[in-house]
Amino acid sequence: MYESHYGFTEKPFQLSPDPRFFFASNHHQRALSYLQYGLDQGEGFIVITGPIGTGKTTIARNLLSQLGDESIVAAQLVTTKLDPHELLALIVSEFNIKAKGDKKADLIQAIEQFLVELNRQGKRALLIVDEAQNLPAETVEELRMLSNFQRDNKPLIQSFLLGQEELKPIIQAPNMEQFRQRIIASAHLKPLSVEEVKEYINHRVHQAGCERDDLFSENAFELIHEKTLGVPRKINIFVDRLLLFGFLEELDVIDSEAILSVAEEMEVELTGSLNNKALDSTEPSQPMVVNSTENVEHIKEVLRDVEEILESSIKEKVKMARYVDKLLKHKSKQYAMENIENSED
C-alpha cells in the first residue's frame, strides 16, 4: 500500500522471517556465531532461547540460507507438544526417509539407516527444532538418544534447539543431566536497545530499497522502543502500521505525533489486553450480582472499552476508504496519461 509513496521496492517490515532482512545485533550475532561454531564441531547440541518475537526463527532461517556446505543435509521442525513417537515420525517425514512401518522401532531403524548412508556419502544430518519449549522432557530425551548414533566415534546427527524461556527449566531439570552434558554452547536472545532499534529499522528500510535516512524523526526511535519494548516482531507490526498511517496522512516524515497516534490505535495489539492486566486468575469464579454498585460500575467500564474498540474500528475503516479512494485517483490519472501518450503516437 505505502511502498511507492516512500520509495520501497517491497514491504520492509513483513512478519515472515526473511534471511535478507536479518539484522545482527550483539545478541543475535553471538547466537549465530554459536550456531556456526556448532556446525564446525559437528556434534552435541546448541540451545538458543529468548522471549517471543526476538528472532530465533530468523536466525535459523539465516543459518540455513548461508549453508554452502553440500555435506550437510538439514531439516527444520516447528513443533507442538510431540511425544517421542510423534517426534520420530516427523523427523522421518522432514528428511524424506522411507520406513518399513510406523512403529517406533521401525522409525528408529529407518533413521539410523538413513544417517549411516549419509555418512557413507561423506554427509551428515542437521536437525533444527524450533519452538522446542513445547517438547515434553521425554521427547527431549529422545533427541539425546538419537545423538548416540555414531560411526568411527563421530555423531551422525546434530541438533539445534530454539525455544522460548520455558525451555530452560525443562533442560535444567535433575533428570536431564545427560542431555546437559551434550550441550556444547547456548545463548539467550534479548530485546533490542534504543540504538539497536534505530539500526534495525534503518537496516530494513534500506534493504527494501529506500535510501532515505530521514524517514523517521530523530526522537522517533526512542519512542518506538518504548512502545514495542525492543522486540523485533512488535517493531515490525508497529512500524508497518506507522508507514501505512504516514501514507494515509500524506506524511513525509514519521514523527512522535504520528507514533503516539498509532500507538493509541494499536494499544490492544501491542499489550495483548485492553488494560495490560493479566487475564488469568487463580481465584474461583463467583456469580455476578448485577444490581450491586460495584458490578454496575464494572459493566459500565466494559461498555466504555467496547465503545472505544468500535470507535477505533470505524476510524480504521475510514482510513482504508481514504486509501482506496486515493489509489483509484492514482490509477485514473495513470490511465489518462497512458491514453494521452497513445493518442500522440
Q: What labels would you give this structure?
A:
XrtA-assoc_ATPase-like, single chain, ATPase, 345 residues, alpha/beta, ATP hydrolysis activity, Helicase, Ruva Protein, domain 3
List the helices and strands and how they pair.
Blueprint: H1 3-6, H2 26-41, E1 45-49, H3 56-66, E2 72-78, H4 84-94, H5 104-120, E3 124-130, H6 137-146, E4 150-151, E5 154-155, E6 157-163, H7 167-172, H8 177-180, E7 183-188, H9 194-207, H10 220-228, H11 232-248, H12 256-265, H13 267-271, H14 293-344
Organism: Thalassotalea marina
Domain AAA+ ATPase: 42-206
Pfam families: AAA_22
H/E series: HHEHEHHEHEEEHHEHHHHHH
Strand order within the widest beta sheet: 2-3-6-1-7
Unreliable stretches (pLDDT < 50, length at least 5) are 272-292
Determine the N-to-C terminus distance.
32 Å
In percent terms, what proportion of residues is strand?
A: 5-15%
Classify the secondary structure makeup into a structural class: alpha/beta
Task: Kindly give the count of domains.
Answer: 2
The CATH class label of the largest domain is Alpha Beta
- The name of the CATH superfamily of the largest domain reads P-loop containing nucleotide triphosphate hydrolases
The third-level CATH topology of the largest domain is Rossmann fold
**Largest sheet composition:** 5 strands, parallel
Tell me the helix content: 40-55%
**Rounded to an integer, what's the Rg over CA atoms?**
26 Å
Count the DSSP helices: 14
- Overall pLDDT level: 82
Specify the overall morphology: elongated
Task: List how many beta strands DSSP finds.
Answer: 7
